[in-house]
Specification:
Length: 195
């Protein structure tokens, strides 16, 4: 696909499989590199963090992996895992916060140039972590929940209400504090919770 593009230009790209001998004829000029996800790649999946809040939230709740990449304007926005799961988008008010990308889609990989003109680069390149699909989906849903909404006014009251709800749900104090801090961090709340 052309540089600064996410759209494949080859018909039936989902079915394309290249051997080592095919590489020179397909990559004779500089271009972006897309990798098929899911079943086609041994269940490689991409947690694509589409908002700054999701990137911050992921730092708190997404499991560790050895494959993380992004670009200058959106660092650590892609975390690769190996899990047999399906593609799913997590939205709030019609805005995609995070995508769990698997079979049927592709991801533009490091070495490519984003539509903004920024180079896509590895931040960690030690191999994707294998993970239970249920655990991964649960973590991605938490990222979306953390990134979805935090009030711009009345945050102290919201923090107290959330803390009370977590306590009634029998969350441990330390886990509840970490969760509230993750929410306020993702919302760039300067009045960080200390409850």
């Amino acid at each position: 696909m052309p540089l600064r593009s996410k759209r494949p230009v080859i018909d039936a790209w989902q079915k394309l499989r290249l051997s080592a001998e095919d590489i020179p004829s397909h990559f004779s000029a500089p271009q972006n590199i897309g990798v098929l996800l899911g079943e086609s790649s041994g269940h490689l999946v991409d947690v694509d963090l589409d908002t700054p809040q999701a990137i911050i939230a992921a730092h708190h709740v997404l499991p560790d992996t050895g494959c993380i990449f992004g670009r200058a304007g959106s660092q650590a926005s892609h975390h690769l895992f190996v899990a047999e799961t399906k593609t799913e988008q997590f939205k709030f008010d019609g805005v995609i916060l995070v995508e769990l990308r698997s079979t049927g889609v592709q991801t533009i990989m490091p070495g490519s140039v984003h539509v903004t003109g920024e180079t896509i680069d590895w931040e960690v390149d030690n191999g994707p972590a294998e993970i239970d699909p249920t655990e991964l989906r649960r973590a991605v849903a938490k990222v979306a929940a953390l990134a979805s909404h935090w009030p711009t006014t009345g945050r102290r009251e919201a923090t107290l209400a959330l803390s009370g709800g977590l306590k009634r749900s029998q969350w441990t104090k330390d886990f509840a504090i970490d969760f509230v801090r993750a929410i306020t961090d993702a919302a760039a709340d300067e009045e960080q919770a200390t409850a």
